[in-house]
Amino acid sequence: MAVLIALEGIDGSGKGTQSAQLVEALRRQGQSVESLSFPRYEQTRFGAAIGEFLNGKFGQLDEVHPQLASLLFAGDRFESKDVILDAAEQHDFVVFDRYVASNVAHQAAKLDEPERSQLMQWIDRVEHDIYGLPRPDLTILLDLPATVAQRLIAEKAARSYTDKAADLQEADGEYLERVRQVYRTLAESNDRWRIVNCLSGDDVRSIEDIADELHAVAGQSLVASRP
């Protein structure tokens, strides 16, 4: 089985860019690497439905219960299970741009305790225990405040699933900050997580600077956990 690395973070934190950077760094080391990005808007039926959800077809964020919304994102990965397992069998590394933790953070952020913790556990059980998706060996959180992330979202190129400048989740700064806090809770309570700060003081670090730290963190963590 491949080493599974998941990159997580709120919208605008640079997951897609840094996933590509990590893949290239590992390949330069002679590793066989596959990358997968979720949601898979154009590859799965659930992915297409997620695009509709994020465009508001089923209502605003507070009009769709997060437990129901979580099934769309979990279904996207379940529909992709063969792709995930094949990649894990055929390569040394699989790098995920969003994985199960993204579903946990984004849906749990819509609730307060104790419902928040209950939903976090429920999603984890559905995706990993019931759907049988493999757990990542390492999850790296690209940590960025929502106010900065929204500025970077505004600079994004057009996406295939929406014709809007920002989807429902991206447009709500308060919601994104709540997602960030759930991510930090996950990262601080699990020894398979690491946090990479995307700011240096008040400034966003360069792509290369973040990529260097991310690559180092991945290497150090995996050497320690896989003798």
Question: What would the keywords be for this entry?
Answer:
227 residues, alpha/beta, Rossmann fold, 5-stranded parallel sheet, two-stranded antiparallel ribbon, 7 strands
A few lines on this structure:
With 227 residues, the chain is an alpha/beta fold. It has helices at 15-28, 45-54, 66-79, 81-90, 100-108, 115-130, 146-153, 173-188, 207-225; strands spanning 3-8, 33-37, 93-97, 138-143, 193-197, 199-200, 203-204.
Rough shape?
Answer: globular
- The helix/strand order is EHEHHHEHHEHHEEEH
Overall helicity: 40-55%
Quickly name the level 1 CATH class: Alpha Beta
**Which CATH-level-2 architecture?**
3-Layer(aba) Sandwich
The name CATH uses for the topology is Rossmann fold
The count of DSSP E runs of length 2 or more, i.e. the number of strands, is 7
Could you describe the largest sheet, including whether it forms a barrel? 5 strands, parallel
Kindly, what is the distance between the CA atoms of the first and last residues, rounded to a whole number of angstroms?
15 Å
Q: DSSP strand (E) fraction?
A: 5-15%
| Spatial strand order of the main sheet | 2-3-1-4-5
Tally of individual domains: 1
- Runs in which pLDDT lies below 50 for 5 or more consecutive residues are none
